[in-house]
């Protein structure tokens, strides 16, 4: 179980996260939804301490960390146990797919090169990119690059996998292959927190959905509860608007 308490973040006078309390259970696939600019990505980045919050603590088995005042040693331990997949792929352009997946294993986990290669090769097989292991990112499609990024994250065997709009930079025809890869990871029991605007995917893959707005969690429940029976008027308006946008403009 992972517990986040009193997580707050502001940019100048803009309060983005306002005392967030969140418990993530082992095996949860937790999706964060809400309007643009409401702090969904910031929440992920604060959990992984890529953003520096004003306050907040995180605890997972054997680790208690003050996210606002953590030292380098605590951050290294946190990042050994969490992995993040970004909107943009963040691959090393001068490294092959295999080398990109090996990098964290060598640098962070201090694996020997043989073990790192074997682990990286298996993860590339798992995401269907074994034949592309010696290709550089520039020779790969956006969908393939994102699948390499997911393989890199999973190779670290994270206790918590964070995915920040992993399909937002992709052409529509490439979205499906990345979503399938995420679904496979979910089916294997990975604990993950996912920010996504793909509402149909959220309905199918998440076991839990939170709605974030104004720096607060306004709703927390199963996909059925949040999408079909929201308690908050604000959430109800958001869901109705999303459904109107996704409905066909006309029928024959």
Break the fold down into its secondary structure elements and pairings.
Blueprint: E1 2-11, E2 14-24, E3 29-33, H1 40-47, E4 55-60, E5 63-66, H2 72-81, E6 82-85, H3 97-107, H4 113-126, H5 142-155, E7 160-164, H6 172-187, E8 192-195, H7 199-205, E9 208-213, E10 216-221, H8 223-228, H9 233-246
| Continuous helix count | 9
How are the strands of the largest sheet arranged?
6-7-8-3-9-10
Helix content: 25-40%
What is the distance, rounded to the nearest whole angstrom, between the alpha carbons of the first and last residues? 50 Å
Instruction: State Rg.
Output: 19 Å
Q: How is the main sheet built?
A: 6 strands, mixed
Helix and strand string, N-terminal first?
EEEHEEHEHHHEHEHEEHH
Strand portion, in percent? 15-25%
Mean pLDDT: 91
Overview in brief:
The protein contains 9 helices and 10 strands. It has 252 residues and is of the alpha/beta class.
Explain this structure.
The protein is of the alpha/beta class and 252 residues long. The protein has a six-stranded mixed beta sheet, with helices on both faces. The longest helix has 16 residues. The chain is globular, with a radius of gyration of 19 Å. The mean pLDDT is 91.
Looking at this protein, list some descriptive labels.
252 residues, alpha/beta
């Amino acid at each position: 179980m992972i517990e986040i308490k009193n997580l707050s973040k502001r940019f100048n006078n803009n309060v983005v996260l306002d005392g967030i309390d969140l418990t993530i259970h082992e095996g949860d696939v937790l999706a964060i939804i809400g309007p643009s600019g409401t702090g969904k990505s910031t929440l992920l980045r604060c959990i992984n301490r890529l953003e520096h919050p004003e306050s907040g603590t995180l605890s997972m088995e054997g680790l208690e960390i003050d996210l606002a005042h953590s030292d380098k040693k605590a951050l290294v331990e946190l990042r050994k146990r969490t992995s993040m997949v970004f909107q943009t792929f963040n691959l090393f352009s001068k490294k092959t797919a295999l080398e990109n997946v090996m990098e964290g294993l060598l640098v962070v986990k201090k694996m020997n090169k043989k073990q790192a290669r074997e682990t990286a090769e298996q993860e590339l097989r798992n995401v269907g990119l074994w034949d592309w292991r010696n290709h550089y990112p520039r020779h790969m499609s956006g969908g393939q690059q994102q699948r390499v990024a997911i393989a890199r994250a999973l190779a670290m065997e994270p206790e918590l996998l964070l995915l920040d709009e992993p399909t937002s930079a992709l052409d529509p025809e490439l979205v499906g292959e990345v979503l399938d890869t995420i679904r496979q990871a979910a089916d294997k029991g990975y604990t993950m927190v996912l920010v996504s605007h793909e509402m149909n995917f959220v309905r199918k893959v998440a076991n839990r959905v939170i709605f974030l707005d104004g720096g607060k969690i306004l709703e927390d429940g199963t996909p059925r509860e949040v999408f079909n029976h929201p308690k908050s008027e604000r959430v109800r308006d958001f869901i109705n608007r999303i459904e109107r946008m996704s409905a066909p403009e006309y029928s024959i």
